[in-house]
Fold RNA polymerase sigma factor.
Amino acid sequence: MVATDTHRAIETVWRIESPRLIAGLTRLVHDIGVAEELAQDALVAALEQWPADGVPDNPGAWLMTTARRRGIDRIRRDETFRRKAGEIGRSLEQTVPDIAVQVTEDDGIGDDLLRLVFVACHPVLSTEARAALTLRLLGGLTTGEIARAFLVPEPTVAQRIVRAKKALATARVPFEVPRRDELAGRLSSVLEVVYLIFNEGYAATAGDDWMRPALCGDALRLGRVLARLVPREPEVHGLVALMEIQASRTAARTGPGGEPILLADQNRARWDRLLIGRGLTALDRAEALIDGPPGPYVLQAAIAACHARARHFEDTDWVRITALYEVLAATTPSPVVEINRAVALTMAYGPDAGLALLDQLAAFPAVRGYHLLASVRGDFLVRLGRHAEARTEFERAAALTRNERERTLLLDRAAACVSG
């Protein structure tokens, strides 16, 4: 039983400390792949020693000390590192701390974490590779956990991670925070990856589950870390606000059997008021930092806040939401934004207004196979009393989605339509 408890403690410590550990080691050895191997070596050492010796008072410092010492041994032993032995070996020997030394933000770990975020989310990598590498290095997830989260084979995730590390090494991506003139573009890549991870947890693309809350939690944790590392960036706080508010609905979004519950039908008493409060505070912080037009995450957080402030669905300020979507559509146009804007138009001004916008969207080939377009169109047609057409749209949406829970919901809605 003691060994089991120790292994659970090691797992918890690893989730918390591994990003800091890999970040600090990357600064020293200048290679993410090697840094992760050294971190894994330290984990193995912990699994061997802690069950017998007990968890040290400062497990993070213990892991860092062990990893750095393994790094010294590796540099001395490995022929491929011989040319670097003098420079990096001396650096490591000088920086190996005593086990009792606290690993804190003052040791540069905060800066190292920020550098690791930008490297893992570098645009040289594909979006899928960025997401996998970020969850591995910063989320502390195993390859198997990432594969299960995104419903892809474990070897596929492993290949993405290996190729990502090789691509970073080949491109000689520096372990540094981008220069100020590059920061905005690179930061948007980081935020895109974090939000991609959150969205996959909030509305799963495929599979048997409507949500994967653990993935939302991983994204929120990454977002909160990022907000501490770059506290003056409004879009970072905007994304955190958006995720906090969206995550507050988790308990109300599914029924006892895991079936989806749409926004209008949710029991808002089950919304997490603590997360809503945190989200609204983050939104206030973001808006206070804005110097110019608001960015897409701040705008989306403001829309989410409108829903969060409404105690009942009927109290929602749809006119304000419509106005916010118009700004968002002008600054960050996308089919998803336009579909959501059509929903807001319908709720504020009637289904004819929303249907007109959807019909314009349907003319573009890129969205014709998008299941949400058909689903939302079906809802508008129900409101207009055009039930036969609505049923066709719901059935079409059900055929297009890859999520089993969503397919069942759409087929139920189709069955509920009575020909007019």
Summary: The beta strands are 206-207, 402-403. Residues 2-107 form one domain.
